[in-house]
Amino acid sequence: MFKDMKLGSKLILAFVGVSMITMILGIFGYYGSVKSQGSIEEIGIVRLPSVDSMLEINRCSERIGGCMRTLAIPGLSKDIRRQQYETLKQAREDYQKAWAVYEPLPQTTEEAEYWKQFVPAFESWREENNKAMETCSLFDTIGIQNPYILKAEMEQFRGDHHKLASNVQDLLLTQETFEGGEDHTACAYGRWVASLEIENPEIKQQIHACRIPHQQFHESIAKIKKLIREGKTEEAKTVFQNETKQTADKVIACFENMKQTGDQAVATLQKTEQQILGPVAQKQAKAIDLLSSIVQINRDVADHEIDKAESQAAFLKIFSMVAMVSGVALALSLGIIITRGITKPIRRIVSELTNGAEQVASASGQVSSASQSLAEGATEQAAGLEETSSSLEEMSSMTKQ
After folding, report:
1. How far apart are CA 387 and CA 375, in angstroms?
2. What's residue 323's pLDDT?
């Protein structure tokens, strides 16, 4: 069939074969590009932003949890507490931005299910955080940096003044003097008041209420010591009953009131700690677990896309090599076959034309030889005619004669 095809058909067939090889390579190359682009978009546009957003929400959650735990620590300065509030506010703004990036991205079925569980869990954790923030704000309004120390100091001051009053009683009974007690600024409470920096209005009020009784208490001790030295024991006892005991009761009452204020601050701080270490920590752990699951799903999808892209790349690489070798071999084969198919008829035609030319040349020689023979016969005939004419002329001349 191929031998009987025309030359134009053979050339068309050759170009069609080369075009088909080129088209097949182009189709597979385009297929590989499309698949690679899909994998790149899935990883770069969907999965990486999803993982980054989830990790950012996780980091912000940890920052918020750290700030809340720090705010539960007693003794922090105002600057440190204010810094924690600012950090917490910034963390909330940051995770809201990450949330806005992640939410519109495509999600797998499993990922969407986890996200539905995560959203209410995260909101529940946020509500518990807000409750903890309320107790923190309430503690800030109390204005006591470390209520535990305040309570311990009030216990110490009360014990010191109880002991001082007891020493005065022993003095009245035994006439044995003791050191100190006369200067209200030299006792532990007096030194504490002198260096105190506190914003609690109740503590300030109690300090103000305690100032005069405290001073009178120590002044009464100075009077008693002087009277004892002068041998006026009965007058000293009167001072103790009328001044020392009454002012001591007032001073100790002030200490007790300040301790109660400290108890309120401690209760608020403990409530904050319980809220942070209890509901806040539990809700946060649940939300973070769901968040970690979402991150893992995105990582698994990304790993799957990477494996798929690598498999496709390996397949296309092998296919391209095979197709290239096959295409070259097929092109060479077609070239050889078509070349032979074209040159063989041409050679046959040339051979036939050569044979025809030789036959024509031989016939031409024969024709030339015949023509030459014919020319020689014509010459002989011409000579014969001349002789005949000459004879006729002689005959005519003889006839005339």
Report:
1. 18
2. 66
